[in-house]
Write a structure and sequence with these properties.
single chain; alpha+beta; 13 helices; 6 domains; five-stranded antiparallel β-sheet; 21 strands; 474 residues
Length: 474
């Protein structure tokens, strides 16, 4: 993750301080403060790097936002430097995003009350500077916006705070402060005292301790062997009867398995039951272990032989036909067994049409698709006609069956019916009811029952207010 903006980082023992999107303003002998630790600035390399006069005495830090540079060096006390800084600041402001039309004292702003809206003015005689913009032009002081502060980052500590912090740091024994000879000696003495503790004078140095450890090498080796002999699991060990008895007592082995002569006595049912109970075995499992045969074990488990149903059926007074029927694996096999029986399904659709689309040509006003469940289909249709012309007109109707699964191939065309419709004087002048029967359908394929109409004479319009197509598949 990237360091936050305006953060600093420094490594313990290094004099270099680096920043992330910072604008370091520093000169020699300025003060850099971070987390209570103070350093004296030696030089500024860039807006994001400065170098201290001494290596950093505190811990390594990174991505820190609570830092400050106090400009207390002699560079800042010279009037020449101050004037140069003010001129540079004004130059940067004039070239930066803040553009003003005039600058002067706060009292001098009144001379510009008659300027147009949008006119800007910088009051530079006060600290911090104030930036104003005309919001209207009524030649009044009320035309100006509220003053906007223009300043850099305020120092978090005064010079007195810095001096107090440095004085405290030089006299402190805290690990994170500046080390003076006094503080360094105290830290070293405390570390040595913590290391040797209350050791006698003959063992209060690292050299003396190392020499003593080397002299006791044989004793340490003997101790290691003794402990290892008690803990070894990779070889047989000589165990006395007393040790064996304690092992049995500690493991409670005697409570779980009573001492018996298995060769001559064996294990009684009560002993086995008690042992299993002590091991946490349930009564159900003990009963299962006691079963003498597979059949008894299946009864305990609540199961039955795989062929129990067939055994019971075989005992019934059935015929060979009935027993063979029971061996069928699915409904398709059963239908085939009974001579190709198929489930009967019906289908239908309704609609209407305003007129024929062509003369003396078959049109397709209504159809219905069905998935064949059997090999036969009986189709029907009902058509009502209304002749709105002044002439009698002949119309025909028929049914056509097509195999949609086979790309729409025609399977059968029914016999057409014909009727002559009288002129307009008779509304609702006639109806036709064509039918069709088709055998040899393939179960599972999709078929279409299509109603077709034909107008012989070019009369019209002839509407079909009621259309119906349906059928039974069996």
């Amino acid at each position: 993750m990237a360091d936050p903006n305006n953060s600093v980082a420094v490594t313990a023992g290094s004099p270099v301080v680096t920043g992330t999107l910072t604008s370091f303003v520093a000169a020699e002998y300025d003060i850099f403060i971070l987390d209570g630790v103070v350093g004296v600035v030696d030089s500024r390399q860039s807006p994001t790097q400065i170098t201290l006069k001494n290596p950093w005495a505190g811990p390594s830090q990174s991505a820190q936002l609570d830092w400050v540079i106090v400009n207390t060096g002699p560079y800042w006390s010279a009037s020449k430097t101050t004037n140069a800084q003010l001129n540079e600041l004004l130059r940067k402001w004039e070239a930066g995003p803040f553009k003003w039309d005039a600058t002067g004292t706060l009292a001098g702003r009144a001379a510009y009350n008659n300027q147009d809206a949008g006119f800007s003015y910088l009051a530079a005689d006060i600290t911090p500077f104030l930036f104003f913009i005309k919001l209207a032009n009524t030649n009044s002081a009320s035309d100006w916006s509220a003053g906007q502060v223009i300043e850099g980052r305020l120092l978090d500590s005064t010079l007195a705070d810095v001096k107090a912090t440095m004085s405290e740091a030089l006299d402190s024994t805290n690990d994170y402060k500046l080390l003076s000879p006094k503080g360094g000696n105290a830290l070293v003495a405390a570390a040595i005292a913590a290391l040797v503790g209350s050791a006698p004078a003959t063992l209060d140095t690292l050299y003396e301790i190392a020499a003593q450890l080397q002299a006791d090498e044989s004793a340490a080796a003997a101790l290691t062997v003794a402990v290892g002999n008690r803990l070894r699991f990779d070889a047989d060990q000589s165990v006395s009867n007393t040790q064996l008895g304690r092992l049995l007592n500690n493991s409670r082995f005697a409570e779980i398995f009573p001492r018996i002569d298995i060769a001559t006595q064996g294990l009684s049912a009560a002993q086995i039951s008690n042992a299993l109970t002590n091991l946490g075995v349930s009564t159900f499992i003990k009963t299962l272990l006691d079963d003498a045969s597979q059949a008894t074990a299946l009864q305990t488990l609540g199961a039955q032989p795989v062929d129990a149903d067939l055994t019971a059926i075989a005992a019934l007074a059935t015929t060979a036909f009935g027993r063979s029927l029971l061996t069928l694996v699915d409904a398709t096999g059963a239908r085939s067994y009974f001579g190709g029986l198929s489930p009967t399904t019906g289908f239908a659709a309704e609609g209407s049409a305003n007129d024929f689309t062509a003369n003396n040509a078959w049109t397709n006003p209504l159809a219905v698709d069905f998935a064949a469940t059997g090999t036969k289909v009986l189709g029907y249709a009902a058509v009502d006609f209304t002749n709105s012309s002044a002439s009698a007109t002949d119309v025909q109707a028929r049914l056509v069956v097509a195999n949609i699964t086979a790309g729409g191939a025609t399977v059968a065309i029914g016999r057409p019916q014909i009727i002559t419709l009288p002129p307009t004087v008779y509304t609702g002048s006639g109806n036709l009811n064509p039918m069709i029967q088709v055998n040899g359908l393939t179960p599972g394929s999709t078929y279409r029952m299509q109603l077709q109409l034909l107008r012989v004479q070019a009369n019209g319009p002839i509407a079909q207010p009621n259309l119906q197509v349906g059928g039974i598949n069996l």
